[in-house]
Write a structure and sequence with these properties.
Helices cover 71% and strands 0% of the residues. By secondary structure, it is mostly helical.
Amino acid sequence: MIGTGILSLPQQLSSLGYSQAFMPLLFGVIASITLYPMIWINGKYPSANLFQINEILLGKWFGKFINTLLIIQLITFSAGIISDYMHLIQSTALQEQTITGPVLCFLLMLVYIVSGGIKSIARFCILTFFLTIGMVYFTHWAFEKGSISHFLPLFNFFSINDFYEAFKKGYLSILGYELIMFYYPYIVDQKKAYRHSLIGIWISISLCFITTAISVMYYSEWQLENVEFSVLNLFKAGEFSFIERIDIFGITLWVFLIFSTVAAYLWCAKKGVDSLVSKKSNVYLYILAAIIFFIVKMPSSRDFQEKLFTATYYVGYMLILWPVFLIIVYVIRKKKQVQL
């Protein structure tokens, strides 16, 4: 869940001004609620992932059609995350270089991680957590220099449109928990899947809450709206005598978080391709990586890419609500079977 979204989360919530600090907590409540239908429908088919459940409940051909759309969404979503991170690198560390080389290196490493399967990705995610959790320490300078008075009054005035804009843009930052529908069959203790998933969600939500709260304390309302990747700029509030630019250090460590996020999405896309074809092969993984490279490096303007990726991110909301539709189909089919 911690990819590139959290880097610009304060900017995405800026329409709420200083009231944005508590939005991640609302996101956490909604994520906890929407997680339950995912676990419920997977629990009815414990050995099947979402691609297989779609074919079971919707029929072979319509299910494959939906799965094809899901694969496209997963690929484009992955490309968007990589593109955002490469844009961050190019705008801060590699201003006079192209991103072709870094993208190729990133994809080669990504393919290596994903080729090991879901266990390889899980191990890498655990390693990433312990390697990067220490970056929270870098925000304590901003906390010391910030003003707690920015929280007062607790809920500044904002309109419904302001809330809608903040919710629409901000919730994208915590997407990722929906992937449990794809790797659920690989969970050993499936009866505790919901409880354990909630722990993971609220760890991520806590980190989002900490970063937004400190951002509110440290930045002015104008800075919240206009400073891109404001979380990295929080690191600049403090200095080490042996590090000239601590934000570059943060960007370097952040690549582990990008790997862990994109690896999960790419693995899901690969499982989707496996569900469409009769013969499974790792060749499809390389083909998917090549497609991602083409999307990231497509000969188009940055504005067009941002619109494409943003549209894909919003489609991700449909994936969160999709289990509710599947549950309705499941209940209707069960009732028909009982009547027969």
